[in-house]
Write a structure and sequence with these properties.
InterPro entries: Ald_DH/histidinol_DH, Ald_DH_C, Ald_DH_CS_GLU, Ald_DH_N, Aldehyde_DH_dom. It comes from Pedobacter steynii. By secondary structure, the chain is α/β, with parallel strands linked by helices. The chain has two domains: 252 residues, Aldehyde Dehydrogenase, Chain A, domain 1 (3-Layer(aba) Sandwich); 189 residues, 3-Layer(aba) Sandwich (Aldehyde Dehydrogenase, Chain A, domain 2), CATH 3.40.309.10. The strands form six sheets. It has a seven-stranded mixed sheet with strand order 12-13-14-11-10-16-17, with helices on both faces. It has a six-stranded mixed sheet with strand order 7-6-5-8-9-20, with helices on both faces. It has a three-stranded antiparallel sheet with strand order 3-4-22, with no helix packed on it. The radius of gyration is 23 Å and the shape is globular. The structure holds nicotinamide-adenine-dinucleotide.
């Protein structure tokens, strides 16, 4: 399998994809280790996780360079991602004991009742490339903390990072049998679905997630899906500083080249502030430096996947054919890498692809609305339900609007953010189950209810 640098379209290296028999061997190693890993005390397991956490910091620069080389994001954004992953791990380490220890429910002479949290066993994590550290640690860190062993399949677009993660776990002292990596793409993922894991945890597209859910259903084991989004944002007429809101929300739409599951993907603006917002938004977008991800100060670098360039072109063409106005961008940047100009469209409608299909790129549609009710109806008009954001100086108004949107996260005066203490979950086509927060720690366990008379 060739590993391509999306910034240059050159082959960085070639790696060997895992064969069926190699995967089965890895599974057996994980199975053999699982009981002894789960028998270690929580504190012993946390000590290993702590060393992994320290190594992420010690090796940050090298890890950021590797990540940038294969996914094309600006080097500073790779560093930010590794720091963000450490913040999440820290929360998990601080809260593991609280949420994974036994809980007493009844403690009387006649009856004692408690809940215990047992590991699932050997779990399979099929992952995405856009934030391999962030979406990876959401799964494999709490899974290991809870006493599971993990087969981690990084995306084929983030294989080198997956290998780095495996190296760090070894260096941290994790037994080889507690964490194994599956190298490869779709066909390797399919092989994993044919095997007998005790839980499947997937991050990726709706299309693949639905397929995985169908396949895993027959096994009767837990299956969690973190999928895509078409996340809407509404700017109400009572915002205090339209220009600041425009700059902040532009970042929410274009950070990581728009390749975030919770990127702002559609913007609705109250007619009273529409013109000012649009001007300031455009000014912000046009101020960004585009170029190679390793160049200082670059904000918009290469897209990870070449195929996405055609998707974005098709969205622009569809929007223009249906009456949208192209305010900036709209075409590929100068190659040979996979570049696309940051693109802003106005005069859009919800009937356009750019307002319905996940773009996962540097493109945004901005639409004028008359009032909150129109905004709510348009925001709700989607198959997805990951996040929704409202900007307003009135918190009650914002919460009233957000509570009418069917999404796993609601943002008031912020967007495109994830917090380790809050459940990360999608509704509708955006997913099943949650990572992060106490729910995300317990997602890798099965409960046992103890009824004890004695
Ligand atoms: P993808 O669905 O193409 O691939 C994800 C993973 O699934 C990869 O490891 C891939 O090799 C594997 N895979 C592909 N086909 C498979 C099959 N038939 N059987 C088993 N495994 C298979 O997604 P992607 O392009 O890697 O990621 C982008 C998508 O992920 C976007 O839709 C994005 O919104 C979503 N995402 C969601 C979250 C979240 O937390 N909700 C986070 C990051 C990314």
């Amino acid at each position: 399998m060739n590993i391509i640098n999306p910034a240059t379209a050159e082959i960085i290296t070639t790696v060997q994809e895992d064969s069926r028999s190699a995967l089965e061997e890895k599974y057996l190693v994980l199975k053999a280790e699982q009981i002894s890993w789960s028998k270690k005390s929580l504190l012993e397991r946390l000590a290993v996780v702590h060393r992994f956490y320290d190594l992420l910091e010690a090796d940050q620069e090298r890890l950021a360079e590797v990540l940038t080389s294969e996914v094309g994001k600006p080097l500073q954004q790779s560093r930010n991602e590794i720091n963000g992953a450490r913040t999440r791990i820290q929360w998990m380490m601080n809260n593991a004991e609280k949420y994974l220890s036994e809980e007493w429910v009844t403690d009387t002479e006649e009856l004692k009742e408690k809940i215990s949290y047992d590991p699932l066993g050997v779990v399979c994590n099929i992952s995405a490339w856009n934030y391999p550290y962030l979406v990876g640690v959401n799964v494999f860190v709490p899974a290991l903390i809870a006493g599971n062993t993990v087969l981690y399949k990084p995306s084929e677009y983030a294989t080198l990072t997956g290998l780095e993660i495996e190296r760090l776990w070894r260096k941290a002292g994790l037994p080889d049998g507690a964490f194994q990596i599956a190298v490869g793409g779709k066909s390797v993922g399919e092989e994993l679905l044919a095997m007998d894991f005790d839980g499947y945890f997937f991050t990726g597209s709706y299309k693949t997630g639905k397929h995985i859910y169908e396949r895993v259903a027959l096994k009767m084991v837990p299956c969690q899906l973190e999928l895509g989004g078409k996340d809407p944002l509404y700017v109400a007429d009572d915002v205090n500083d339209v220009a600041a809101v425009a700059a902040g929300t532009a970042d929410g739409a274009f950070y990581n080249n728009g390749q975030s599951c919770c990127s702002v993907e559609r913007i609705y603006v109250h007619e009273q502030v529409y013109e000012g917002y649009l001007d300031a938004f455009l000014k912000e977008v046009q101020s960004w430096k585009q170029g190679k991800p390793t160049e200082e100060g670059v904000y918009i670098a290469a897209l990870t996947r070449k195929e996405q360039l055609a998707v974005l072109e098709a969205q622009v063409a569809d929007a223009l054919a249906k009456g949208a106005l192209l305010l900036t961008g709209g075409k590929r940047g100068v190659g040979p890498g996979y570049y696309f100009e940051p693109t802003v469209l106005s005069n859009v409608t919800n009937g356009m692809k750019v307002m319905q299909e996940e773009s996962f790129g540097p493109i945004i549609g901005i639409m004028k609305v008359q009032d909150d009710n129109e905004a709510i109806a348009l925001m709700q008009d989607t198959e997805y339900g990951l996040t929704a954001a409202v900007y307003s100086s009135n918190g009650d108004r914002a919460q009233k609007i957000l509570s009418q949107i069917d999404s796993g996260s609601g943002y008031w005066n912020c967007c495109d953010r994830v917090s380790a203490g809050l459940p990360w979950s999608g509704r509708k086509h955006s997913g099943i189950g949650a990572t992060l927060s106490h729910q995300g720690l317990r997602a890798f366990t099965k409960t046992r209810a103890w009824h004890m008379r004695g």
